[in-house]
User: Fold this.
Amino acid sequence: MPGLWQDAMDHAVILARKAGEIVRDAVQNDLKIMCKSSSVDLVTKTDQNVEQLIITSVKEKFPDHSFIGEESVAAGEPCVLTDDPTWIIDPVDGTTNFVHGYPFVGISIGFAVNKTLEFGVVYSCIEDKMYTAQKGKGAFCNGQPLHVSDQKEINQSIIATEFGSNRDPEVVAKIFSSMRKILCLPVHGIRGVGSAAINMCLVASGCVEAYYEIGIHCWDIAAGAVIVSEAGGVLKDVEEAAPVSSSDTRGY
Ligand code: LIP
Assistant:
């Protein structure tokens, strides 16, 4: 049976695919690279164009819907979640990868109503993997059902994380201190593909047991949150999460 917001979800999949084509074409060309908060917080003209394409198309089809988009917020739009049907967009998740031709770049579209996430779409466009999930209807990659790992032991696990773009020495020290503790548990390994959204899809796929990051934004994780939950995983605020010695790591 189609879900409540099926038409919006179908449109999100179409837009993610279209955006993916633009990103793939742009990788071959001269990118217009700019910096946001610092010299390592990158944005390109493609990020901005893709976000505009998605927002313009959604506004035509669903004129009463609202938006939180990474590049719109960077340009001064408010980042406020209301009860309105709201599209939460990261047009190019993994911009640094995109700039360097590192082959993990996602288009991430989450959708919330009454402040509850209803569906998520992450298109890993270089790999051509379309991850989708709708509340209560399961998670899929290219139509195949996903499930998080059933590994219960952290010392049998791979943990994904990212370094983010904050180079404040205190923040960097905190990141390394957490990684050191996790590595020495010991875990099988620490990974990260440079895109929060794709890391979350890897959790949903069961190939890494958990993903965490300090200082993440809602557009990085909105779509991935639905995909992880629908694949049987759980989401936690790192400030509230259980200490790292906890033995159960499944699908964080
Ligand atoms: C980036 C992420 C990356 C994470 C950064 C950032 P962007 O998104 O996906 O993995 O470490 O915090 O949010 O800027 O490429 O859309």
In short: The pocket of L-MYO-inositol-1-phosphate is lined by residues 70, 90, 92-95, 162, 164-165, 194-196, 213, 216-217, 220 (CB under 6 Å). The chain has two domains: 6-145, 154-230. Residues 6-145 form a domain with the Fructose-1,6-Bisphosphatase; Chain A, domain 1 fold (CATH 3.30.540.10).
